[in-house]
Write a structure and sequence with these properties.
mainly alpha, two-stranded antiparallel ribbon, rod-shaped
Length: 838
């Protein structure tokens, strides 16, 4: 049944000793003692004077004349015709040369007169008949009697007799015909108990029987109750192929029986035992091992033990060395275990490289899918795998897969290839390989093809978006292949009510035609807009959008209900706002564009509001922009951003926008009504305010305080003190802006009304040697109109600082201004003319 005779020398010797018949003649019948028998053993008719007793010369049983009508030769017993019972006559007529008789063996085992040699021969005879599924065992009562006769000899007897009895019991258990009676007779507990025997022959025969019985739930239950699985795994000798085959038969049956038995295998180190068998040179055993591991790896709890056993590392090499089912199972193990990121991080790059040759074998889609799935999982777990694979030349192979339409299942391979590229595209080696091998064009073709699956379109556009964001080569490559035309098809929204439009494959079942088109728009428009916005960074922004004829499509998407689409459209608008092209500025100021931009200032999400604030900051010098801001009451929104937002970037953009609006008289009305001056002063005093925010606020105040009334209101709110605190800070740009604002404030309300502390004076003197010295000179010139303040400046070295600036400052205008300020400071002081001449 299990291929005996293929084992190693040691195991073969043990098995032969168990299976070989003892030395001696053919089993002889032992006549039943008729003294105490009152009825026929076959028909159970009582013996009388007329119905006499007779012995069957074949089996030795006492029968009546009616049950022994025939006389036949009995092989090995008598060549002459002798009386035989009707049961023995059946097999004697059918096979007159067969020496064994099951009834004879049963009788010999149940009578005390039989010698040990006879008992051993009887057990072997039953074993032979069971192995050949003899007609003598066709009737269930005979099988039951044979089992009942054998069981007492399976333990507590001489080892030779025990071996033959266990061999016979194993043959009965292995045969499907006799399996049920064997289980009912209680053979399973005996066999499980024998698994722990120290005798190799007994243990192998018990394992052989248990292996056959594990297909039955009742036998598995006994195996579990008696901890038979642990015994099998720990004690079954695996040095022989016979032991390996038996082991795998039991493990296969348990693994296929259900999750509770697979749990047992995990808990009793069955996975580690199978991992040890992976090194076998027997391809059949290897196939069985990998099949079971592939079945178990589907359960998450088994993946870590399978990895820790070393099976995964072996499977990398096995997948390349072997083909067929072994390769498929090995690749399934590898791909499934590598999906666990924690496990994947411990895999070596050398093992992963084993799989590279398999990616060229497109004939087996299932294996190819496992390889690409493994690459995708590893690239997500650790970038070193993606880098190694890219250096090894995998990128062109993946692009070949993406360019090809294969058989059923090919779409999964393409998806894995795209996933790998998506995970790895931020790595420089991968980006360069994509550009070098025309990968940008491949991705663009997939994204624009109507036959592409919706998910493929989305991934390709996302890839192009990421690549175009970080790589100028990718942007140039996309522009060179006419990427704007492709993006046009994606950016232009499809009319969901147009029944002539056909949705792409990959929609959600049950969605209507209109819903499918809306879904398609949402998956492709956002990434396409991101790519457009990235391309605008290198190319003339207006040319990119106008060449694609998509400027109005972008505007429409800016008010989309999908946040990602609206955000991508706003990013395009930001690129327009940064452009120096007057056409871009005019487009943003259009009456059908500007309201949408201003409306985004009230967006609850900070990123859209920040983008809108940046665009408004570029446009607020235009009266049309200020009119729209006043119309939508957006000035208050900008002020609220400054005072309440926790996003410093948003506050910085808002402060710049406020600075641009501050020159408009209407701004003062709004800021007065909303207590905006106090807000601005508070921001300048706050230590949490970022330098960029202070810079923007100071620029806005510099415009605001040019009006005397506004300046007085600002001064009453503590504005001068707030500006001096910024001047005293470490941020040079904010300090320079604050100095300029302080100069405007001083000129508007008179220098006698502005007080500055010693720290601020020393800081402004230091600023004379910095890049933006002109702002400090402007403030010093205004403040020195107050004699006490002028003397304090002179005491802090402003004279020598101005002289040095007039001689060596890198800016020629600053040098000229330093001389003028020096003259103004000195001529109003005591002995000023002499000092000027000096």
């Amino acid at each position: 049944f299990f291929g005996f005779g293929k084992s190693s020398a040691a195991a073969t010797a043990a098995a032969t000793a168990a299976a070989a018949a003892p030395q001696g003649d053919v089993e002889q019948p032992t006549w039943m003692d008729h003294g105490g028998i009152t009825a026929c053993t076959l028909c159970e008719a009582e013996f009388t004077t007329i119905r006499r007793k007779h012995h069957c010369r074949c089996c030795g049983c006492v029968v009546c004349g009616a049950c022994s009508p025939q006389s036949l030769p009995v092989p090995g017993v008598s060549k002459d015709k002798v009386r035989t019972c009707s049961e023995c006559a059946k097999h004697l007529v059918t096979d007159p040369t067969r020496c064994n008789c099951v009834l004879r063996s049963i009788h010999n085992l149940t009578t005390e007169a039989t010698t040990p040699v006879g008992q051993s021969v009887a057990c072997r005879a039953i074993a032979d008949e069971a192995a050949s599924e003899s007609m003598q065992l066709e009737e269930r009562p005979v099988v039951e009697r044979a089992l009942n006769a054998l069981l007492p000899f399976t333990r507590g007897v001489q080892v030779d007799i025990q071996r033959q009895a266990v061999y016979a019991l194993a043959n009965l258990a292995v045969s499907p015909k006799y399996r049920a009676p064997a289980m009912e007779a209680g053979a399973v507990p005996i066999l499980v108990d024998l698994l722990a025997s120290q005798d190799d022959s007994l243990r192998l025969q018990a394992c052989r029987a248990v292996a056959a019985l594990t297909g039955e739930e009742a036998a598995r239950a006994v195996l579990v109750d008696m901890r038979g699985v642990t015994t099998i795994i720990n004690q079954l000798p695996l040095e022989s192929e016979e032991g390996q085959n038996i082991m795998m038969t039991i493990v296969e049956a348990l693994a296929q029986a259900g999750p509770q038995y697979r749990l047992m295998l995990r808990e009793h180190h069955g996975i580690f035992t199978m991992a040890a068998l992976i090194s076998t040179k027997n391809a059949t055993i290897l196939e069985r091992v990998t099949n079971v591991l592939a079945l178990m790896v589907s359960e998450h709890q088994s993946r870590r033990p399978i990895y820790e056993s070393g099976a995964v590392v072996s499977c990398f090499a096995i997948a390349v060395k072997h083909g067929g089912k072994i390769r498929q199972s090995a690749l399934k193990i590898v791909s499934t275990v590598c999906a666990d990121s924690l496990v994947a991080q411990t895999i070596s790059e050398r093992d992963v490289c084993y799989l590279i040759p398999l990616i060229d074998e497109h004939s087996n889609v299932q294996s190819l899918h496992a390889v690409t799935s493994t690459f995708a999982s590893l690239s997500a777990a650790d970038e070193r795998f993606a880098r190694t694979l890219a250096v090894a030349g995998v990128i062109p192979k993946l692009l070949t897969i993406l360019n090809k339409q294969g058989p059923e299942g090919w779409s999964m391979v393409r998806t894995d290839a795209l996933t790998f590229l998506y995970n790895a595209c931020m790595i420089d080696v991968v980006r360069d390989a994509l550009v070098e091998h025309s990968g940008i064009g491949v991705l663009a073709n997939i994204a624009s093809s109507p036959q592409s699956h919706m998910s493929e379109t989305e991934v390709c556009l996302s890839l192009l978006s990421m690549l175009s964001t970080v790589s100028d080569k990718a942007r140039q490559a996309l522009f060179d292949i006419g990427g704007t035309s492709m993006l046009l098809d994606c950016v232009k929204p499809t009319d969901a009510r147009d029944t002539k439009q056909t949705p792409r494959a990959g929609g959600i079942p049950g969605f209507s035609h209109e819903e499918q088109l809306m879904l398609e728009n949402s998956t492709k428009v956002g990434p396409a807009l991101q790519v457009l916005a990235s391309m605008c960074e290198d190319q003339p922004v207006w040319d990119v959008l106008s060449d694609a004829r998509s400027e109005m499509a972008v505007v429409k998407h800016m008010t989309s209900s999908d946040p990602s689409i609206a955000l991508a459209a706003l990013r395009c608008m930001v690129a327009l706002g940064r452009s120096s092209d007057r056409r871009s500025r005019e487009f943003l100021l259009r009456t059908d564009v500007l309201p949408g931009l201003v409306g985004h200032l009230g967006n609850r999400d900070t990123l859209p509001a920040e983008m809108a604030a940046e665009i408004i900051a570029q446009l607020c010098g235009e009266r049309r922009c200020r009119d729209e801001l006043i119309k939508q009451d957006s000035v208050r929104r900008l002020l609220r951003m400054l005072s309440t937002s926790r996003n410093e970037d948003l506050k910085s953009k808002a402060s710049v926008a406020i600075g641009g609006i501050a020159t408009d008289e209407r701004f003062w009305n709004v800021i007065s009504e909303s207590n905006g001056i106090a807000m601005l002063v508070e921001i300048l005093f706050s230590p949490q305010s970022e330098a960029s925010v202070r810079l923007g606020v100071c620029s806005a105040i510099g415009n605001l305080v040019q009006d005397r009334n506004h300046a007085l209101s600002f001064q009453r709110a503590g504005g001068a003190h707030a500006l001096t605190s910024v001047i005293s800070s470490d941020d040079r740009d904010a300090a320079a802006a604050a100095a300029s604002a302080l100069a405007n404030l001083t000129m508007a309300i008179d220098a006698h009304n502005v007080q500055v502390d010693e720290t601020c004076i020393r800081r402004m003197v230091q600023m004379l040697a910095e890049q933006r010295a002109s702002d400090a000179m402007h403030a010093i010139s205004a403040l020195c109109d107050n004699p006490p303040t002028r003397e304090r400046f002179i005491a802090n070295g402003v004279e020598s600082a101005l002289v040095q600036a007039s001689k060596s400052h890198p800016d020629s205008q600053a040098r000229q201004r330093a001389g003028k300020v020096l003259v103004k400071v000195l001529e109003k002081g005591e002995g000023g003319h002499q000092r000027i001449v000096a």
